[in-house]
Amino acid sequence: MSEVRVLTTSRTYDIICFGDEVPGILTLVCAAREYYRQTNQYPRTLLLFKGNSTLGIGGHLVRGGLSYLDRSAVPLTIRQSRNLDTFGDPPAIYKEFLQRAGVALIALDPVKADGALRDMLREVRADILGDIEIKSVIKEGQKITGIELTNNETYLGKQFIDSTVNAELAQAAGVKKLKGFETFGLPNSELAVTLVFVTHGLSIERLKNVEYQYLKRFTKIADTEAQKWLNVAAGGDPARADQLRKDLVDSKGNLKTMFVGKDYIDVRSKALSIAYHSFRGTSLSLESSGTILDNGNVAILSQGRLSWNALLYKVNADQAETLARAKAKPTSEMLREMLFVRKWFESIGASQVKPAEELYIRHAGNITGAVDPLSGSEMLAGCVPQSQALGTFGYHFDIRGGINGLDARAAGKGFNNLEFLNPPLFNIGIQHALIKNVPNLAVISPGSGFVGYASSAGRIVEFNCGVGQGVGIAAGVAILPEGVAQGRNLADISNTQVRTILAQTGRLSQVYGTGNVALAGQLGDFENQMIA
User: What is the model's pLDDT at position 486?
Assistant: First the structure.
């Protein structure tokens, strides 16, 4: 029997981005624009990703529906001294994206985000290809030269960007990735994943009133019915019940009612969570229940829609990796829990409750071999020197849902007090995203070259868009014609070179990172001992 030959097709590009997370798309846009600025023609660019493009492009912000954007936190004194807005001075490309998507402060409508990203890609003439799987990565020496897909198509390129949460292209190219929080000696532990959902027909006034009634009842010991509900959420543990009750009031004894902003709601108490878990018959503990309705970060969208980042699912490192590779689709178990969420929210006034198409996976390990890995202690020290910095970002070390085993491991090493975990305000560079041994690849995601606590602040989209803006410029420069730049690699391009271009083109954000040497030293000691 004669052999059946499979015909393969190949196409050639200058820059290929694998993964359609917003930082990756904006990196591709910045690369194309920089190349155009220097040559007056657009490079051949391709956005390649696993998700279903008919459901929108933009990764977990679009198909994952994460409408409540985590923004840069800048202390009031610094904002006043530099005349900065609430969120400081964000990267120029991120400001442009928010403006195009119609974001007032925090709430991002996924449909508008999809439209804005498609427009930006269309303007630089990028090709878009979704619903794909990597079969293998083609390399010449250390460099990637192409990606072969399972449908036998091959896409060749000069520079490559990986914006997936699990650094999937980098892994396929032979880059070592540490599992979970292996940088803390906890390879099986991972952050919780979230299924965002949108409520329709539940007014803010109604929601505020429901929460207020629960707050009043749960804090009233004489209300025996409400105390029974609270006891269910406490898992029958009187000490836990007492703790839950105490957390419903602030230091002045006032009820912790929700804060309603211009386009967002911060749910400050666990009153709604307690009510849900009593209805559900499970304890308000990720460890014992595997799923919790946490304090909601709620984005206020048009037409009476509220987008909830609140429903956490416990996963280990292998599960996070498996979910990321499976297009971030929620499992049947996760969707079963969503049925209870829907029923409860309908009971308090929602007409509809719709889950997102994909999960929000916060973290799925970190690559090794970055040009300059970035630790939490370096963030606390201010990170990149001012003369090299591409901007500044501030955020707390956010381990929502907790890192399983971290407290016990820390205590075992003599760390019972982690007060050195102040929110860092640090300067942005690109070296932690560039890879020494695959010099034409950048990983711009929570899976970048972060060590210790760094990934908890470094996983935030706004920060990664700042990194992406820099990497994009570097990629644009790296593919310039021979006479201009000698066809360099991403890994050869410095922060300073990128900063110079940002300054020349009027896109350099203000730089105001601050270092806390004492706390950075303490965190450095902690990170080093946890890894050992």
Answer: 52
Q: 441-443 and 366-367: which strand pairing?
A: unpaired
- Condensed to tens digits (0 to 9), the pLDDT of residues 299-348 reads 999 999 999 999 999 999 999 999 999 999 999 999 999 999 999 999 99
pLDDT at 531: 82
**Residue 230 burial (10 A CB sphere; 0-12, 13-18, 19+):** buried
Give the torsion through C-alpha atoms of 457, 461, 462, 466, to 10 deg. Answer: 90
Residue-wise pLDDT tens digits, 394-438? 999 988 888 999 999 999 999 988 888 899 999 999 999 999 999
Q: For residue 389, what are the contacts with CB-CB under 8 A and spacing of at least 6?
A: 383, 427, 428, 429, 495, 499, 511, 513
Q: 252: which 2 tokens?
A: 């002045």
Q: What is the CA radius of gyration of the chain?
A: 24
Distance CA 270, CA 230 (A): 10
pLDDT per residue as tens digits for the range 478-524: 999 864 445 589 999 999 999 999 999 999 999 999 999 999 999 99
Q: Map 394-407 to HEC letters.
A: ECCCCCCCCCCCHH
Asked if residue 391 lies in contact with residue 473, where contact means CB atoms within 8 angstroms, the answer is: no
Q: Provide the strand spans (E) within 282-347.
A: 291-300, 305-313
* Consecutive H or E run containing 337: helix 332-347
pLDDT of residue 213: 98
Query: Is pLDDT at 247 greater than 60 in this prediction?
Result: yes
Residue type, 129: L
Q: Where are the domains of the chain?
A: 1-184+363-373+432-505, 193-361
Tell me which fold the domain 1-184+363-373+432-505 belongs to: FAD/NAD(P)-binding domain (3.50.50)
CB-based burial, 164-186: b 16+ in 10 Å, e otherwise:
bbbbbbbbbbebebbbbbbbbeb
CA dist list (Å): 403 to 208, 247, 364, 524: 31, 21, 12, 18
Q: What is the pLDDT of residue 152?
A: 93
**Which ranges constitute the DSSP H helices of 40-130?**
59-62, 76-82, 92-100, 110-123
Cβ atoms of residues 364 and 447 within 8 Å: yes
Q: Do residues 14 and 490 touch, judged by C-beta distance below 8 A?
A: no
Q: Is the pLDDT confidence value at 275 over 70?
A: yes
CA quadruple 174, 179, 180, 186: dihedral sign:
negative
User: Would the pTM of this model clear 0.85, i.e. be above it?
Assistant: yes
The reported pLDDT for the residue numbered 398 is: 85
Structure tokens at 204: 């803010």
DSSP string, 348-377: TT-SEEEE-SS-EE----EES-BSS-EEHH
Residue 184: DSSP 8-state:
G
Q: For residue 127, what is the enclosing H or E element?
A: strand 127-129
Distance CA 343, CA 274 (A): 15
Residue 194's beta-bridge partner residues?
Answer: 312, 360
